[in-house]
Design goal:
single chain, mainly beta, 10 strands, globular
Length: 188
């Protein structure tokens, strides 16, 4: 019986220690982070030895959910700077020089912002990184700005999503949430 009590105490100590160590783990965020690459699925292609060239770009963003809310014109206010997603500001990284609109953007990491309007969005590439939200947005750090027409999408997206699709001379970075989809054309 004494041996059984010692085993119980030992196991209890291990379990208590494990629980105590996990108390600093933050809870799962409701707007989890995601990442998209161009070429699409680059990390998978790389481990399968199918990647022909190095990646050109990637975007790291948080995925808010619609949850029955009015998104554009409600949660995301028209005419206001938006971090393009939730939580930390969305980051876009170019692994080589690219062109956005008529502006040449050097390879590197940037933050992606938008100023949405019902009929026009201004997408902004800004050199300030590692920031939360759009609270510290500084227009003097803009690297590129481009105006884009949003499209009404008949297939609404519950979860905010960003993804690349190839096009002649480059790729489009699609931003899709609720019933709106817009494309940032990137040439390389």
């Amino acid at each position: 019986m004494k041996g059984l009590s010692l085993i119980f105490l030992f196991v209890s100590g291990i379990l208590y220690s494990a629980v105590a160590q996990n108390k600093n783990i933050p809870p799962i965020d409701k707007s989890g982070m995601d990442m998209s690459y161009y070429p699409v699925n680059y990390p998978i292609l790389k481990i399968q030895d199918k990647a022909k060239d190095p990646p050109i770009m990637r975007v790291i963003y948080s995925r808010p959910q619609k949850n029955g809310r009015d998104v554009f014109g409600g949660l995301v206010e028209y005419g206001q700077i938006w971090r393009v997603g939730a939580n930390e500001a969305t980051e876009i990284e170019f692994f080589r020089d690219v062109t956005i609109g008529k502006t040449r953007v050097k390879k590197g990491r940037y933050t992606l912002y938008a100023i949405p309007q019902p009929d026009n969005w201004t997408l902004i590439v800004n050199r300030d990184t590692d920031t939360w939200g759009a609270f510290k947005y500084d227009q003097k750090k803009d690297v590129a700005r481009i105006d884009i027409k949003p499209e009404k999408n008949v297939d609404p997206a519950e979860a905010f999503s960003m993804y690349f699709e190839p096009r002649t001379g480059g790729a489009n970075l699609y931003i899709h949430w609720d019933n709106i989809r817009t494309a940032l054309p990137i040439s390389f």
